[in-house]
Structures are given as structure tokens and as C-alpha cells.
Write a structure and sequence with these properties.
Number of strands: 8
CATH architecture: Alpha-Beta Complex
Largest sheet: 8 strands, mixed
Number of domains: 1
Number of helices: 8
Shape: globular
Helix content: 40-55%
CATH class: Alpha Beta
Radius of gyration: 18 Å
CATH superfamily: 2-enoyl-CoA Hydratase, Chain A, domain 1
Order of helices and strands: EEHEHEHEEHHEHEHH
């Protein structure tokens, strides 16, 4: 069984390992089975020494991002995250795993509330809201641990969708410094992110596959992942 990877390891240098996280985080992989997270974990622990993570992503699956965050935080050596262009949405959660977070002078970071699509009556809508509220609390854990801000402050920022350049990210505690001589990875691709663009893309994908229905709704899939996370004690308050 083959799996699509959204990460890539560069050839190891003597003193550091280099990991590239590019593009959408786990658009359709990671949760179909346990193959992808195991591959990521095996890749992560296939060597030793400090790791530099080059990050350029508009976001993606918040559960995959949370799992990557946890794996990086538990790695025994230093993790340095370097944001070459964009760390938005779920990708900003991954960035919080860095012992040191550095941003390119031209890069951006974005925080916002988790979102899903739910279908059903008022009770289903309420379940979806409660689920999103719980996911938000888990995401706030990562932001608060890095920035030191209160949960209420971070929650308000997420409500309003907070965009930060490097100076603002440093001032707010989400980054530690600016890349003085940023080396942009050759496989990086320019990306522009907006909530409307991502939502439109998601809806178009759903509509285009209407004649090939997949089991469950998007909300159902996310709810199953949340239950699985609780079983594994990954979401903590």
C-alpha cells in the first residue's frame, strides 16, 4: 500500500537533520489507516540529533497537525522550526512544537478557529459546535504553552482570525526570532491562503465526488477522530 507524504527529509548533515513540511497537511492521508502516522514516526526516529523543520503550509487536518506536534515535542533533541513563507491554521500548531521558532522576514503566521461541515437537525448542529469547542481548547493548549498568553486572549484572537508577520509573531510570543539569512527550500512553492478559498476548494471537492459518496460526513469523520484521540489521551485540558 502506497501513501502520499507531505513531508520530506533532506540528506543528514553532520550536526543536524532537516525536515521539510510542505503544502496541505494530510489532505487525504494519515487517517485512512495507521500507515502514514507510523511512517512519520519511523522517519522521525530513524536518526538522532537536532532537527530543523522547514515549514511552509496553509494548514490542513487539525488532528494530524496535533499528532505531529506531539511527536516533535516528545523528540529528545532540539527542534528548530523555520517558517519560510506560511504557517497558517493547523500548520501554526505544528510550528508551536519548536524549541526555537524562526520566521523569514516575508513569512506569515495565522491562527483561527477550527471548522467543519455538518449535516442534520439542530441536535446535530449542537453536537458539531460542542466538538469544535473541544478541539479549540486542545489547540489553545499548544498556543498558550509557547506564547504564555491567557486562554481567553488566545481564544479571542482565534475568533477574529489573527494574522502575524514576523515582528508581530515575535512580539506576541509565537516566534523567537527572524531568519537573518533565510535559505528558502527549493521545493517550496508560493501559496496564498484565505478561509474563503479553502472553503470553496473543500466544497468543490465534495460536489465533484457527489457521485462517489464516501462513508460518513466530514463531521462524522472528525467526530470519530476526536473519540480516537480521547482514547489515546492526546487531547488534554
Amino acid at each position: 500500500m502506497t501513501t502520499s507524504k507531505f513531508w520530506n527529509w533532506a540528506e543528514n548533515d553532520v550536526d543536524e537533520r532537516v525536515l521539510y513540511l510542505e503544502g496541505v497537511i494530510s489532505e487525504e492521508t494519515w487517517w485512512g489507516d495507521e500507515v502514514t502516522p507510523k511512517i512519520f514516526r519511523d522517519d522521525l526516529h530513524s536518526g538522532s540529533g537536532d532537527i530543523t523543520v522547514w515549514l511552509n503550509s496553509p494548514g490542513g487536518d487539525c488532528f494530524a497537525a496535533a499528532a505531529i506536534y506531539t511527536m516533535l515535542k516528545e523528540y529528545p533533541s532540539k527542534i528548530t522550526v523555520k517558517i519560510s513563507a506560511l504557517a497558517a491554521s493547523a500548520a501554526s500548531v505544528v510550528a508551536m512544537a519548536g524549541d526555537e521558532v524562526l520566521m523569514s522576514p516575508a513569512s506569515m503566521m495565522m491562527l483561527h478557529n477550527p471548522a467543519t461541515i455538518a449535516i442534520g437537525d439542530s441536535e446535530e448542529m449542537l453536537k458539531a459546535k460542542n466538538m469544535l469547542d473541544e478541539i479549540k481548547e486542545s489547540i489553545i493548549n499548544a498556543y498558550a504553552a509557547k506564547s504564555g498568553h491567557s486562554r481567553d486572549t488566545i481564544s479571542n484572537w482565534m475568533d477574529g482570525e489573527l494574522w502575524m508577520d514576523v515582528n508581530k509573531a515575535i512580539r506576541f510570543g509565537f516566534a523567537d526570532g527572524m531568519l537573518s539569512d533565510p535559505v528558502i527550500a527549493p521545493q517550496n512553492k508560493g501559496m496564498v491562503f484565505s478561509r474563503k478559498a479553502v472553503t470553496a476548494s473543500l466544497l468543490n471537492k465534495i460536489m465533484s465526488k457527489a457521485d462517489q459518496p464516501r462513508p460518513g460526513t466530514l463531521y462524522d469523520n472528525i467526530e470519530k477522530r476526536l473519540i480516537e484521540y480521547k482514547k489515546n489521551n492526546i487531547l488534554r485540558k
